[in-house]
């Protein structure tokens, strides 16, 4: 197993993110990891929610050899940060799916679990630590903000996390994620199939239009309901036109 020097854990000292204080995760090693395949290094960060009853339960599962799941990091609702797998290694967090036509997301990504069931907003202390952690990871691996994705982005229809209550717009304002539209874009013309536009926007993990619509709304229009509408098409078309931004 890979080794690392244990460090004392730290909790967010206040609701205000510090850009100078160094993060010091609690080292809690998981046996569920392996080498990154084909010489790959992280070019993505995948955000998850735990959907469990507390960080302790999630930590136990992510470190249980029988569960065969893990992540690089877990952030508790109170801002406590645990690290379970070295970033250089391949954690088992993403599962089946793809992003921009690239599979084996585990070998291409750093996985971050957030203690939340997806039913309520994410805590301020938790978000502050996430922002700090993302700044470090993006800098360390030269990952563009567009490389920070949801689990649901790479596995539409199979996964919903981090869900509609996650504040993607907040990350985008800090340059830590792909910009999110603050209001519905104006409808535009065009008759391209929705699935084709979604694929051009990076959503290659499914060909089912309804799963793709759900994934895109979770990320960019969590308030939207009902069948696909003109604002959905305008949004995904704008994202597709932005497809040349590098993430892998």
Task: Describe this structure as you would to a colleague.
- With 248 residues, the protein is an alpha/beta fold.
- It has helices at 55-62, 105-108, 124-141, 151-154, 168-173, 194-200, 209-220, 230-241, and strands at 26-27, 33-35, 44-49, 73-75, 81-83, 89-91, 109-114, 148-150.
- The chain has a domain at 26-173: Lysozyme-like (3-Layer(aba) Sandwich), CATH 3.40.80.10.
- The chain has 8 helices and 8 strands, in the order βββαβββαβαβααααα.
- A hairpin with a 5-residue loop joins strand 4 and strand 5.
- The two termini are 28 Å apart.
- The model is unreliable at 1-17 and 244-248 (pLDDT under 50).
- Its EC number is 3.5.1.28.
Comma- or semicolon-separated keywords:
248 residues; Lysozyme-like; six-stranded mixed sheet; 8 helices; 12% strand; disordered N terminus; Amidase/PGRP_sf
Radius of gyration: 18 Å
Q: Helical stretch count?
A: 8
CATH topology annotation of the domain at 26-173: Lysozyme-like
What portion of residues is helical? 25-40%
Number of DSSP-assigned strands = 8
How are the strands of the biggest sheet laid out side by side?
1-5-4-7-3-8
Based on secondary structure, the structural category is alpha/beta
CATH architecture assignment of the domain at 26-173: 3-Layer(aba) Sandwich
């Amino acid at each position: 197993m890979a080794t690392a020097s244990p460090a004392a854990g730290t909790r967010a000292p206040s609701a205000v993110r510090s850009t100078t204080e160094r993060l010091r995760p609690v080292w809690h090693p998981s046996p569920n990891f392996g080498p990154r395949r084909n010489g790959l290094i992280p070019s993505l960060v995948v955000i998850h929610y735990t959907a469990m009853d507390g960080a302790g339960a999630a930590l136990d599962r992510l470190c249980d050899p029988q569960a065969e799941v893990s992540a690089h990091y877990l952030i508790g609702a109170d801002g406590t940060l645990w690290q379970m797998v070295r970033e250089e290694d391949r954690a088992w967090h993403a599962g089946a799916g793809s992003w921009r036509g690239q599979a084996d997301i585990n070998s291409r990504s750093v996985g971050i679990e957030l203690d939340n069931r997806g039913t309520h907003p994410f805590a301020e202390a938790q978000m502050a630590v996430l922002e700090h952690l993302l700044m470090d990871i993006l800098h360390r691996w030269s990952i563009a903000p567009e490389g920070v994705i949801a689990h649901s982005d790479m596995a539409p229809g199979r996964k919903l996390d981090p869900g509609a209550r996650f504040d993607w717009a907040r990350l985008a304002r800090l340059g830590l994620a792909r910009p999110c539209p603050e209001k519905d874009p104006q409808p535009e013309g065009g008759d391209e199939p929705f699935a084709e536009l979604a694929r051009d926007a990076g959503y290659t993990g499914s060909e089912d239009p309804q799963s793709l619509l759900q994934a895109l709304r979770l990320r960019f229009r969590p308030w939207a309901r009902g069948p696909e509408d003109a604002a959905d098409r305008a949004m995904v078309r704008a994202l597709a036109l932005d497809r040349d931004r590098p993430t892998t």
